[in-house]
Write a structure and sequence with these properties.
The complex is a heterodimer of chains A (323) and B (556). Chain A has 323 residues and is an all-alpha fold. Chain A has helices spanning 2-29, 45-54, 61-73, 87-122, 127-141, 144-158, 178-216, 219-226, 231-268, 274-283, 287-315. Helix content of chain A is 75%, strand content 0%. The N and C termini of chain A lie close together (10 Å). In chain B, a hairpin with a 3-residue loop joins strand 8 and strand 9 (217-222). The chains are: A mainly alpha (323), B alpha+beta (556). The interface between A and B is large, with 64 and 70 residues.
Chain lengths: 323, 556
């Protein structure tokens, strides 16, 4: 177990290092200058040069990379050009919002996905199964930003049921009692979380259906049925327990999906999370902030994958951690 | 198990939701003239609120409520002399000699933390704006003409100029917002870009900083003791949206009260149909144009194979039906400028300057006369084995410019010119422009109130933003004459001559200048908008007591 963990840890560090290196090269080679106004306003070249010197951009790429790694080794992510504050602080204020959004989306994804998958497996090849197969395929194929815009149009602009964007109501939030503040957050969370969650649920449901159908064909399920157990008991107590294992491993894969999806969804809903921060940073050519957000995202993916493996082991005693 | 009937359960949910917006809020008792909360929907986020080191337009919108100039432009004020200005921190001013301008500060002016605003603050501000460590974008402009700023006594500041010119007063007051020396003196100048003061500023303006929630919103509160008159609106809140569509949806849905510009006819229609918004049209401070690169793409030493020829450029201008394009894209909410002139320079929209009329036949003749003929019958003219084809760089984030690129492509195809549209993000376009790596580009320019700083920068031989390398000694002379004219009439005459030269040389095609249309919730009255700074006069806006809603009263 310890050896396995150490190996996974080493692999994780190598992956993060490779991602950071590739991102560093890519953002520095991308056209655009972080200190030139994007609207083309005249800027004194000497002033731009002074800024480039102040932030070390006048050095060679290799030198900048070396300095970045040294700083990273000290736990410093640098200073954001566009936010005018430490990258760690900018990420620190965005990360909780993304964790909240990703958590809620994950809940919707797995709760709906597993429920639909089980429902379909229990009614395999019936009309409801076919209809849900088409529906889940439909959601799975939808681009998240498009679904977000449709939900926004429907529930915010036409029906006025839910807010257009942001994480809280900036006018009322502080004046609300605790319950009201929680509800305010919830109202703002519904649409972005649904957007991310529904698309994910489409995939999870299809996965769950297939896993459960496979489990239902196993000998132990036939034995359970032969013992005269009710179909619901056979399905939930016996088959589903087995069929959940592959779905647990999906957790690790869901995290990158949620983080990449968050870039678009957070932009559509003006959700102040890591995805929007990364998108803004890319547009502003804010190298340290781009690197910081990529670092955190890759860390989350590595950790998520590790947790998924550990959960699978915990759920299935037949699996041993080795090699 | 007891189950709630369907309708009451819905009602319960509705009550719960309503709870967050009204009933459960701790609505205050504010009911008079000085209540009101105004939520602005803005695109992009504030970077910092320290004027010398932050000049993004959203930064300026916010800090113009916190910091004041010595004097400010009136909504239709000119920049020559001082007649177009009203007192702000300075109560009055006078010239003691042709090169010395004396400002007498208003003794009532106070910083929001208590101390009075003094001439020391003015001198300190000038020193900061012109220090290389601060690296202000206005440093060059200020140092070009102002030798020094000193404090004669606590309420008298002296500006010493290097030379005489018509916009001395404008330069003295417009570029600097006065800063509190007592709070900033001990902050090292080199750290101002990231200084904590820029995240929680203290000024002497009508509004004081309350909070800034990164990525979400920023709030200001009215300074009830503001010496030029208590602002009517008690709270100003900026909501940061990632794009214009989200911002407009917030306003249309009633989650924000105002947006500075709607831009497209579709957005204008959406706002008009909302039923709760009033639209305000004001002259736009921008103009959009197609710039020709007169030097070869990526090689500024060689002439451009197509655009170095003035007649070819003029032919392309003639082949562009600008009035029809403008109508097609903006449905009457923009005008074709008679030169590089935004609508906010209304004093230059004169009959002497006219837009050359569309004449595709003349354009075709001009091209043929320069040897560009369709020798192989493929629909594209050629000369000496080279096709009359060029790449047009367009920022993909600007729908009007993308639309214009397509219309230009169609229009020029009709006279045998091939246009290849290259859409790219703004940062990439800027880099290409600065490196000279383009054939032609669609640019939008946000102009200062004075053409004297804007026009030579973009079209002057040595202008830092003259990316197309247009060089005309005649134009430079005429601009210099305009900038040194001592009366508005003389300046206008010289500007007309300069823009006439530009029209003859056709270094670009001036396409449109939009009528900016802002949308503001109808409960807000006394709305005045200044073209160069949309919300500059917001302290005079108000919401009558009978129109206040629950949101306006929160926290009162």
């Amino acid at each position: 177990m310890t050896a396995w963990l150490l190996r996974r840890l080493a692999a994780g560090i190598a992956i993060i290092f490779a991602v950071v290196t590739l991102t560093f090269v890519a953002v520095h080679l991308a056209p655009g200058d972080p200190f030139l106004p994007a609207d083309g306003r005249p800027m004194d070249p000497a002033a731009v040069a002074r800024l480039r010197t102040a932030y070390g951009l006048d050095r060679t790429l290799l030198e900048q990379y070396g300095r970045y790694l040294v700083a990273l080794g000290r736990g410093e992510l640098g200073q954001s050009f566009s936010r005018r504050r430490p990258v760690a602080a900018a990420i620190g204020s965005a990360l909780p919002n993304t964790v909240l959004l990703a958590g809620a989306a994950l809940l919707i994804d797995f709760a709906c996905g597993i429920a639909i998958g089980v429902f379909q497996a229990a009614r395999v090849r019936r009309r409801s199964d076919v209809a849900l197969t088409n529906l889940t395929l439909f959601f799975y194929s939808l681009p998240t930003f498009w679904l977000g815009m449709v939900l926004l149009l429907l529930f915010s602009q036409w029906l006025h049921w839910l807010p257009v964007g942001g994480a809280i109501d900036p006018v009322l939030h502080d004046a609300l009692p605790l319950g009201g503040r929680l509800l305010d957050r919830l109202r703002h969370l519904v649409l972005p979380a649904l957007t991310l969650g529904l698309v994910g649920a489409g995939g999870t449901a299809r996965f769950q259906r297939a896993a459960l159908l496979e489990a239902l064909g196993q000998d132990y399920v036939r034995t359970a049925r032969a013992k005269g157990l009710a179909e619901r008991t056979v399905l939930v107590r016996h088959a589903l327990r087995d069929a959940l294992l592959p779905v647990i491993s999906l957790l690790g894969l869901a995290l990158p999906f949620l983080l990449t999806g968050a870039v678009l969804v957070e932009t559509v809903f003006a959700w102040p999370g890591l995805g929007k921060l990364a998108a803004d940073a890319i547009l502003a050519r804010d190298y340290p902030l781009v690197l910081g957000t990529v670092l955190v995202a890759s860390l989350a993916v590595v950790v998520g994958s590790l947790v998924a493996d550990l959960l699978t082991v915990a759920a299935d005693p037949r699996i041993r951690l080795s090699g | 198990m007891i189950t709630l009937p369907r309708v009451p359960r819905c009602i319960a949910v509705a009550v719960l939701i309503a709870c967050t917006t009204s009933a459960c809020s701790r609505a205050g008792g504010c009911r008079d003239e000085y209540c009101g909360t105004l939520v602005f929907a803005g695109v992009g986020e504030v970077t910092a609120l320290l004027p010398p080191v932050s000049d993004a337009s959203v930064d300026r919108d916010v800090y113009d409520q916190i910091f004041l100039r010595l004097a400010d432009l009136t909504p239709d004020g000119g920049t020559i002399g001082d007649s177009g200005f009203v007192p702000q921190l300075a109560q009055r001013w006078e010239w003691t000699d042709p090169l010395t301008l004396v400002f007498h500060l208003d003794p009532r002016a106070r910083w929001q933390d208590g101390p009075p605003v003094t001439a020391e603050d003015v001198a300190f501000t000038f020193a900061a704006y012109t220090d290389t460590a601060v690296n202000s974008a206005d440093r060059g402009t200020l140092l070009a003409h102002i030798a020094s700023v000193t404090a004669q006594d606590s309420l008298t500041a002296l500006f010493h100029f290097r030379d005489r010119y018509p916009e001395m007063f404008y330069d003295a007051v417009f570029h600097m917002r006065i800063l509190p020396a007592h709070l900033l003196r001990n902050v090292p100048l080199a750290t101002w870009r990231t200084a904590e003061f820029g995240r929680a500023p203290v000024g002497a303006g009508p509004y004081r900083f309350v909070r800034w929630t990164p990525g979400q919103s920023l709030e200001l509160a009215a300074d009830s003791g503001f010496y030029l008159g208590r602002p009517h609106l008690r709270r100003l809140i900026w909501r940061f949206a990632s794009d214009l569509n989200v911002a407009i949806t917030q306003v249309v849905a009633g989650e924000a009260d105002a947006i500075e510009v709607l831009l497209s006819p579709t957005n204008i229609e959406r706002a008009r149909n909302s039923g709760h918004l009033t639209l305000y049209s004001y002259p736009g401070p921008t103009y959009t144009f197609l710039r020709f690169n007169l030097r070869a793409d990526g090689d500024s030493l060689r002439p451009h194979p197509i655009f170095a020829d003035r007649d070819v450029r003029r032919a392309l201008v003639l082949a562009t039906d600008r009035a029809r394009m403008c109508q097609s894209v903006f449905s009457g909410n923009a005008k074709v400028p008679p030169g590089p002139i935004p609508q906010s320079w209304s004093w230059l929209w004169v009959p002497q300057l006219t837009v050359p009329s569309y004449d595709s036949a003349q354009a075709a003749r001009l091209l043929a006369a320069r040897g560009w003929r369709d020798s192989d019958g493929d629909g594209v003219r050629d000369r000496g084995g080279r096709k009359l084809s060029f790449h047009l760089s367009v920022p993909s984030t600007s729908p009007p410019r993308v639309q214009y690129a397509q219309l230009l492509q169609e229009a020029l195809k009709a006279v045998g010119v091939e246009v290849v549209i290259d859409q790219m993000e703004p940062a990439t376009l800027q880099e290409r422009l600065r490196a000279g790596g383009f054939d032609a580009a669609l640019e939008t320019w946000f102009a200062d109130p004075s053409p004297a700083s804007a026009a030579p920068g973009i079209w002057g031989s040595h202008g830092p933003s003259n990316f197309g390398h247009y060089a005309s000694p005649a134009f430079d002379r005429q601009v210099a004459a305009a900038a040194s004219a001592t009366t508005p009439d003389a300046a206008r005459t010289s500007w007309i001559a300069a823009f006439g030269t530009l029209d003859q040389d056709a270094p670009g095609i001036m396409l449109f200048s939009v009528d900016n249309i802002a949308a503001v919730d109808s409960r807000v009255t006394d709305v005045q908008i200044r073209p160069d700074s949309w919300w500059a006069l917001v302290r005079t806006w108000r919401i009558p007591p009978d129109k206040l809603n629950e949101r306006d009263r929160v926290g009162g």
